[in-house]
Amino acid sequence: MIYSKVIVSVGIAVICLFGTKGLSQISSPGMGDAKTASWFALGLKQDFGREKKWESVSYIGLGRKSNPDEYNLVHKPSIFVINQEFFHQFHNRWQYSLGFSYRKQHEYTSTYPYVHKNPEFRQELRSYGRIRYSLGNDPVKATFQFREEFRKFYGPRFRSFSEDLQFRSRLRMQLTWSINSTKTHRLIASAEALFSISKKHAPEQWTTFAYRESRFSLYYSLHPSSVPITFNIGYMNNLLGNHSPHSVHYLAFDIIFTNVFSSQKVKSQ
Prior knowledge:
60% strand; globular; 11-stranded mixed barrel; mainly beta; disordered N terminus; DUF2490; disordered C terminus; DUF2490 domain-containing protein; Lipocalin
């Protein structure tokens, strides 16, 4: 059942946007069980190197979510993220990156009144790498991506947590469309499947490597030619579980400052 939903959702994204290019956005992280969630991020993107084939992307983000039985997407705090990633364009179609992240995520009970668990939050130190392949030219571009993550979890004061560590694999397809010739307006659609294996702290044991969730998003991106800023607003559907999957609906908004330390005029990428 879950696999048919994933296939249908990917197909819808292709039908809607194929024949249509895009600027990257800061995608919302998963926030667990809820009806709705909201995400805001502030980022800085900077090209560097003699041939500008290296790129640094830094951002800070905040997420809030509803209870599982209501739709107030800013009802309670969910996640805080600091992230740094370095990209290298080593071929006109190939790119790899290395990233590091700190995350603090609130933990809530799964039954009413959905109060904080004990401990109230978990901390995460994450490192990851990704490889990207791009296909197509303006106004349409498709990107295929594989991302591998190592996640280490801690409780408050960096004490041990029930889930000790996790290896997670992510497969993503993204389609972007430049709506106008100056590339100031774009649409970005993506579909992603996530698989993982975890090590529990006590008793010490490993879970099976398996599919866990999917994420489907559609963003509108505005990159004014007069200022080095990109604005992104979008919707994400987070499909959780594989036996009885359920959806969490996200509203996301981010602002990215681009090449603010460059002496040359910023060009749309």
